[in-house]
């Protein structure tokens, strides 16, 4: 074909133009629609950030209320979809449950899946924002064998989510404002990160004009991997293994450096950030506050702090410019909140949803968008002939 340029892992090639999120990996800068992540994390709410990412501007008070109200009115799941959960084993990973249920959700809306109808796109955007947290909470309840609760629309978005996860039928549930605020902040920090693997997946599937549920479900599947969103679960498992095995942080770091069995320091390193991930800095502050506020003393936090200290002072990590990423400390907060480890990546998915929706819509709205179809450099056999006399006829 004459094609010679290979870009393994898309390190050098832009797949699209985008006006949503800006990252400067050298300086550790992250901005959504121009607003610094630090300011949004300190002063905004997750729903406002979702609005900003999707529609491009901060909402007025009236727009915000209408948006929040619209989401609240779409929180119910079809009763039949609840039975979908019964068909899965109780040990099912909540990420598999989430991606499958989101794809299944589209089957209830087959007459409103037209990607070229802006009203239908808007309706499905709201449905996904409203229903994904409910599906996520039910995946959690399913995994611990508890009954599903109905959404409580007297609560706000994050409070409702906490109640659906931790409330128990017939017992009153008091939302802890410390938890609600911390979770809201974490969701803001995860809300978008330009063309990462899951967002690129959402855009690629969307470029085929597949429906938005299929695209978001594919994004959730991409996020599941331990090199991407699954890293938050992998970090906690890593910390737990270091604690249980008693091998010590230095020995573990040595094994990472020796690349023994391909072991990596999970929650470290990033394709784009070659300095401290600005999100990780904010998450670390939250971890201190939340654990202190809840009175949790987690020995895994000590191991994480020691790991970070050792790695940041070690030539292997310095030469490769490996710093903690957003996933390094989040698991400790989720654990303190009471979420099981296998729910951590689901929480990431809820946070990333506005970003996926914003990117899907940006691409879908652009008449110049073409179907994503990467090229390859073929390195296989040139031409061979099927053996004379060989036949299955
Ligand atoms: N531990 C040990 N070595 C590492 C790590 C790590 N976490 N990350 C990168 N390296 C080494 C890697 O072995 C390679 O060394 P060498 O040049 O000797 O072969 C060098 O650093 C460059 O790594 P790479 O794999 O080419 O870098 P990448 O940009 O392709 O990968 C990454 C980025 C995030 C997949 C990788 O850093 C990684 O696997 N980190 C651990 C998993 C993780 O925490 N993922 C979460 C990413 S942030 C948010 C999210 O997406 O969820």
From TrEMBL:
Keywords, sorted A to Z: Acyltransferase, Transferase, Tricarboxylic acid cycle
Active site location: 270, 327
InterPro entries given in the database record: Citrate_synth-like_lrg_a-sub, Citrate_synth-like_sm_a-sub, Citrate_synthase, Citrate_synthase_AS, Citrate_synthase_bac-typ, Citrate_synthase_sf, Citrate_synthase_typ-I
Top-level division of the source organism's lineage: Bacteria
Reactions catalysed, as given in the entry: oxaloacetate + acetyl-CoA + H2O = citrate + CoA + H(+)
A Pfam family annotated for this UniProt entry: Citrate_synt
An annotated Gene Ontology molecular function: citrate synthase activity
Pathway(s) where this gene product acts: Carbohydrate metabolism; tricarboxylic acid cycle; isocitrate from oxaloacetate: step 1/2
Keyword Transferase among UniProt keywords: yes
Matching CDD domains: EcCS_like
GO biological process: tricarboxylic acid cycle
GO cellular component, one term: cytoplasm
UniProt similarity note: Belongs to the citrate synthase family.
NCBIfam families: cit_synth_I (TIGR01798), PRK05614.1 (NF004126)
Record-given protein name: Citrate synthase
Species of origin: Pseudoclavibacter endophyticus
